[in-house]
Design brief:
Largest sheet: 7 strands, mixed
Structural class: alpha/beta
Strand order of the largest sheet: 2-8-7-6-5-3-4
Radius of gyration: 21 Å
Distance between the termini: 21 Å
Helix content: 25-40%
CATH topology of the largest domain: Aspartate Aminotransferase, domain 2
Number of strands: 12
CATH architecture of the largest domain: 3-Layer(aba) Sandwich
Strand content: 5-15%
Order of helices and strands: EHHEHEHEHEHEEEHHEEHEHHEH
Number of helices: 12
């Protein structure tokens, strides 16, 4: 039996999501921009999905733009904001622990003359707000891009406080909420970010669909121009089955939040950590214990090397990772662990164990036994 503990890399597509998609892969295959009735019916399905995604994060439906993935959503915002603030006398602030989908575009900005500042985090993985406030300069046009929850540790960032700092300076605020949406409450009607990125495959929709929240009235320069779909924000014929899938997945995660499903996942994560702590003499649990998503345990095993543990765990039927799936195969310590002050030895000894609504107690208990045996 395979025990899947890598849900921050991707999640199983929910059966209800597959069922919702199927009509738009078979009978309802029309172009939603068509003028006849069959096309208009497909268009209605897109707008229903838009309402479902908006409801998940407390947005208005016309503030949701469908994209191909979370990386595209991030790049769309960063490139638009780069044009908005201009290269001269402006500043950009990002954290040291951002995903490469934010770090790489902002590195490209720095390479052509933008002032890009990286803000550190405390050893618990939370943003250093004092440093952030010092970087945000009200005398300069600028924007900040901060992840809502970290993809490797699950640590949730102080988004309200950071957003208030940025907005007080007259800056735009973008959040990569890809690892937070569907796992913790994410509400744009409470935290006044200007942009928010979503990726469907992180919460049981298929890979290849994402969304971008653009607050009403916020300037936005399209990255893809053409026929004017998505309110002119992203042209191209819509990927209807996958958009419908994202809408259905959003509704499912709202139900899970309401019926205790996310609390159940958090309880299983705690059971996993408790079990490992009881079975192993040397184990460390990393990141804030208070501010984190309910599905992630970031664990270090002193004296062991994660790269050596992973194939043994895989052979035993436990699927997990040593960090971001995008960094698999890299020989250097992960930038997130280094930003948190990990030694190289500790960074190389760390595993990310991430659960989903499909994880069972039996799987967690079996995983504890297998991980403890192999680490020992």
């Amino acid at each position: 039996m395979s025990i899947y503990l890598d849900s921050n890399a991707t999640t199983q597509v929910h059966p209800r999501v597959v069922e919702a998609m199927m009509p738009y892969l078979t009978g309802a295959w029309y172009n939603p921009s068509s003028g006849y009735a069959a096309g208009r019916e497909v268009k209605v399905a897109i707008e229903t999905a838009r309402e479902q995604v908006a409801a998940l994060i407390g947005a208005e439906p016309d503030e949701i733009v469908f994209t191909g993935c979370g990386t595209e959503s991030n790049s769309m915002v960063i490139k638009s904001l780069a044009r908005e603030i201009g290269r001269k006398s402006s500043r950009v602030a990002v954290s040291e622990i951002e995903h490469s989908a934010v770090l790489r575009p902002t590195e490209a900005m720095a390479a052509v003359g933008f002032d890009v500042e990286r803000v550190g985090v405390h050893d618990n993985g939370r943003l250093d707000l004092d440093q952030f406030e010092n970087v945000v300069d009200s005398s300069k046009p600028g924007f900040a891009s901060l992840m809502w929850a970290n993809n490797e540790t699950g640590v949730v960032q102080p988004m309200m406080e950071a957003t208030e700092i940025a907005k007080a300076a007259g800056w735009w605020m973008h959040t990569d909420a890809i690892q937070a949406v569907g796992k913790v409450p994410v509400r744009v009607d409470e935290v006044p970010v200007d942009f928010l990125s979503i990726s469907g495959h992180k919460f049981h929709a298929p890979k290849g669909v994402g969304a971008l929240f653009i607050r009403k009235g916020t300037p936005f320069e399209p990255m893809i121009r053409g026929g004017g779909q998505e309110g002119g924000h992203r042209s191209g014929t819509e990927n209807v089955p996958y958009i419908v899938a994202l809408g259905e997945a959003s509704s499912i995660m709202m139900e899970e939040a309401g019926n205790g499903g996310l609390d159940r996942v958090a309880a299983l994560r705690d059971r996993l950590e408790t079990g490992l702590g009881e079975r192993l003499n040397r184990v460390e649990f990393n990141g804030s214990r208070e501010h984190r998503t309910g599905n992630v345990a970031h664990v270090s095993f002193p004296g062991r090397v994660a790269a050596g543990l992973l194939p043994k765990l895989d052979a035993a039927g436990v699927q997990c990772s040593a960090g971001s799936a995008c960094m698999t195969g890299k020989s250097q310590p992960g930038h997130v662990q280094k930003a948190m002050g990990f030694s190289d030895e500790k960074a190389f000894s760390s595993l990310r164990l991430s659960l989903s609504i499909f994880t069972t107690q039996e799987e967690v208990d079996e995983a504890v036994e297998l991980i403890a045996r192999i680490v020992s």
